[in-house]
Amino acid sequence: MHSLQFTAESSSKGVVERDFVVGEVPGVLWSPASGADRAPLVLMGHGGGNHKRHPAMAGRAQSFVAGCGFHVAVIDAPGHGDRPRTAHDEQEVAALAAARAAGEPEGPGARRYSGYLAELAVPEWRATLDALQELAEIGADGPVGYFGINLGTAIGVPLVAVEPRITAAVFGLHWPDDLAEKAKQITVPIEFDMQWDDEDIPREAALALFDAFASTEKTLHANAGKHHDVPRFEVDSAARFFARHLGRVLTSPA
Amino acid sequence: MHSLQFTAESSSKGVVERDFVVGEVPGVLWSPASGADRAPLVLMGHGGGNHKRHPAMAGRAQSFVAGCGFHVAVIDAPGHGDRPRTAHDEQEVAALAAARAAGEPEGPGARRYSGYLAELAVPEWRATLDALQELAEIGADGPVGYFGINLGTAIGVPLVAVEPRITAAVFGLHWPDDLAEKAKQITVPIEFDMQWDDEDIPREAALALFDAFASTEKTLHANAGKHHDVPRFEVDSAARFFARHLGRVLTSPA
Known about the structure:
The structure is a homodimer of 254-residue chains.
Chain A: E1 4-12, E2 15-22, E3 25-32, E4 41-44, H1 55-68, E5 71-75, H2 87-101, H3 107-132, E6 144-147, H4 151-162, E7 166-172, H5 180-183, E8 190-195, H6 203-212, E9 218-223, H7 233-246
Parallel strand pairs in A: 4-5, 4-6, 6-7, 7-8, 8-9
Antiparallel strand pairs in A: 1-2, 2-3, 3-5
Protein name (chains A, B): Alpha/beta hydrolase
InterPro entries (chains A, B): AB_hydrolase_fold
GO molecular function (chains A, B): hydrolase activity
């Protein structure tokens, strides 16, 4: 087992940001600046083609840490961010770019590549969680949530299906093809985001994936608009969802 | 035009509650105890077989007034609460009770009766809104929202379709049969609640009604559970929806 090594630290607006590595996998941990007492941890998966420091990740982390007092951790998916791309990664990325340039649907390629990435990423996330829980401010028995849409769902659904330490999750924007069978194994509370006018993911496909979760508490949020138009208020909603399920009271109106 | 007559007043936990009548129609207006400055108004429609003082109405009013600083008004639907039942009302209520006793679906009777009630209730709501806007603490040009699920949607959809003063609405738990054509005339922001395992309203029917709204900003909230299991956090969500659209900042985490 690899332990977690911090490689950089900075602080802004009450949030401490620390770069880390666990083995070969680089990540960022955002934490409340005040207080070393144990707080819930939210693991966050980034979208396809993005990385751990994408503004969407940093913005959500700011909201969750400052608003809810959580720790938030993001790691780069294989072939993303600061990680090397293999020949296979290059090939899949080129195929996606070619589909986009030709005006063809990216879905088939995105599903194939994200399924490949998920097989690599699930054990990386579990090792990262092992290492994070060694930290005194997180601890081995604190509540853990997962938040990831898009590629973050392709990786998160198989992760949550096998990882009993994760007790609440926000998913969305994906197809049921490779994920529905895994979703049927998930029973923890779920919030699921879809876009009602998604140009890539048919409405029926998104509804089928939501339907597959075995969770007795699950909520679908479908917003008018296209794939990339998920409204910002869904991040606030996710923060309240985690506050309900991970047991931390909101410190400001989210 | 009838003006609004107050008939009783009480106060509790920072909320003033005033009974009123507009012509033959009785209602309740809940308002913030402090400050006579103008504040947004939320009109609230009660469910079938309920009335203006049902605990669900009083609870939501408390949340909206204390949490958001809104005024909240509810009136009794025809044949409900303090209003007389006609022979036709008695007949429809008996038909619903008979269907329930026989284990038959209540949907057909509920749709027929609620369509009848909506035709009576829409002009009553418009006259009530006229009278409420005569009050100094509400005013003629302040923002107005509407919140009603179930019978509150059967009445609210045709109301919002013809009432330009209402600029945001929360609906849910109804069939598209009589409402989809009216929903197509609605363009204001909408939040729509459905139950994923509703025993009365088929999933496809609820999705079809949500789909019918012409609003460019609309959000579907589908929760696991049966018809009467709408989670309490949807009231908090509705409060935040109105705070976004009616322009009042939340005064406490909702």
